[in-house]
Amino acid sequence: MGKGTGAQAGLRRRNMALVMKALAAGENVTRAAVAAEVGLTRATVSTLVDELLAAGLVEEQGAQRPGTVGRPGTVLALSETGPAGIGAEIGVDHLAACAVDLHGRVRARAQRPAANRSRPAEAVLAELADLTAGVVAEAAAAGLHPVRTTVAVPGLIGQDRGTVLRAPNLGWEDVPLAAAFGEAAAVENEANLGALAELWLGGHDGRLTDFVHVSAEIGIGAALVVEGRLFRGARGFAGELGHVPVRPEGPRCSCGANGCLETYAGEEALLRAAGVRTGRGPALKAAAVAGDPAALRALEEAGAALGIALSGAVNLLDPQAVVVGGPLADLAPWLLPGVRRELAARVTDRQWRAQDVLVSRLGHDGVLRGAAYSSVRTVLDDPATWIRTVTEPSLPPTGSTSCSSR
């Protein structure tokens, strides 16, 4: 391929991605609207849209609705069939999988309880593969075809995005997880995927681009989104908020240090302090709703500890907001007063407001949906390569194992 030909192909690839993202971001969108949005000629946009239509990535939905200026155009939208992203999640006490379409809508989902702590990784992965296969089959019946699978794990992930280096709450070390799901698979830390789900699917319409996302089950995880991109750190381990010391004289943590946030606000610490022995998170919430003094006291102390840890992150990073997600969101009414009080007392920016602590709308599915959508976004980010992969099957699968794209 000549130099000029290669440059032309690269330009076409970038332009097609621009068109695809414009279609993904808008409603009642026409070719003319896309051309105005991305700064390309109508002829160029029309040619690219025709290719996307032929590939099944875009569909026409009829004439533009009345009330628009000028001659109505044909409305375009991302296809509801075709490429799908598969997400799989390994929790300490559950396994889950789902499929999402190009819109990020969940089209198939399955979950089952599983006691995964200290369970052999091979057994966990075999059960997860079985669960995922059922989701893939259900998605296929709806006309969806998996692009890749992303697996969410509560642990440190290697830079190859395929190996779990250490997952203390599972008892795992150096597990080559992606290999169990085939070539087109990636592994990602669950907290990172929760933050990416918030960025992409949290209903902020692109307005929230700098934030700290915090969630918890057995442990506490956080992730940092800076200028619309996931911040990983030099070795990929940024966000270990659970092991920030909040009271150095406090109890010993599983990491070997004393007084870490996890010893006050992790699920096991909360349940122990509240005197809840069965039912875990839902039982703790029920006790709080009922006004149980021990539960309320435990949640108050946990909220204060969380606020102390988050104040350091806010002072260091100056984010737009802190987002509380995952199971922590269920406990927000009792946690957030302590969080907000500590932030108000400790954050140096006096413009910081209580409203800057948000509760995610995604609930418990944030991590799983983030995993699935990160898989299908490889098509949104680079549709030309995906089309080429489909038409030339000998090419490697589209996308990379990084989930840090905007």
From TrEMBL:
Keywords annotated in UniProt: Kinase, Transferase
A Pfam short name: MarR_2
Domain named HTH marR-type: residues: 20-62
Superkingdom, natural source: Bacteria
GO molecular-function terms, A-Z: DNA-binding transcription factor activity; kinase activity
Family membership: Belongs to the ROK (NagC/XylR) family.
The protein, known as: Sugar kinase of the NBD/HSP70 family, may contain an N-terminal HTH domain
InterPro entries named in the record: ATPase_NBD, HTH_MarR-typ, ROK, WH-like_DNA-bd_sf, WH_DNA-bd_sf
